[in-house]
Amino acid sequence: MKKTILLLLFTLISALSYGQKALFDRYDDADKVTTVYISRSMMQLMGDVKVGDKDISKIASRLDYLRILSCERSSLIPSIIRTAQTIYKTQKYNVAMKVKDNGEQVTIYEKKYGNGKHEYSLLSIEKGEVAIINLMGNVTLRDIQSLAHH
Prior knowledge:
By secondary structure, the protein is α+β, with helices and mostly antiparallel strands. The protein has one domain (2-149). 39% of the residues lie in helices and 39% in strands. The chain has helices at 2-16, 18-27, 40-46, 57-60, 77-90, 141-149, and strands at 33-39, 50-51, 54-55, 63-71, 94-101, 104-114, 117-126, 129-137. The strands form two sheets. It has a six-stranded antiparallel β-sheet. The chain has a two-stranded antiparallel ribbon with strand order 2-3. Helix 2 packs antiparallel against helix 5 (77-90). The radius of gyration is 16 Å and the shape is globular. 21% of the residues are buried. InterPro entries: DUF4252. Residues 1-19 form the signal peptide. This is DUF4252 domain-containing protein.
């Protein structure tokens, strides 16, 4: 019975996170779009893990994956934003934080799956660039916020 429940939970989590994966896959081969995928096993091998200037080593061992999409191609930016916002709305992500400052908009979306699993997606929009950082694991919003302050 436990195995059945765990299998069902894993299948549900996989299906729900498919939308984010589809977003990254859709733009993976586009010009002037950079995508990065780092698995749990790769993070464990890397030791000190940095995303930009942020050291995420403290939470890396609790992450299932980390995905990053960055685009500077002005013709694709509106499409990426629309696609991401549609996924966040249809898959019922909650807005955890929203900041607008000097032409930059940053929104952190959160989705809870149970058993301590959370998915966070940071959507950063500024003139001429959009970036999405998506991660899933046994991390809390407090963990994510602590990264933002360091």
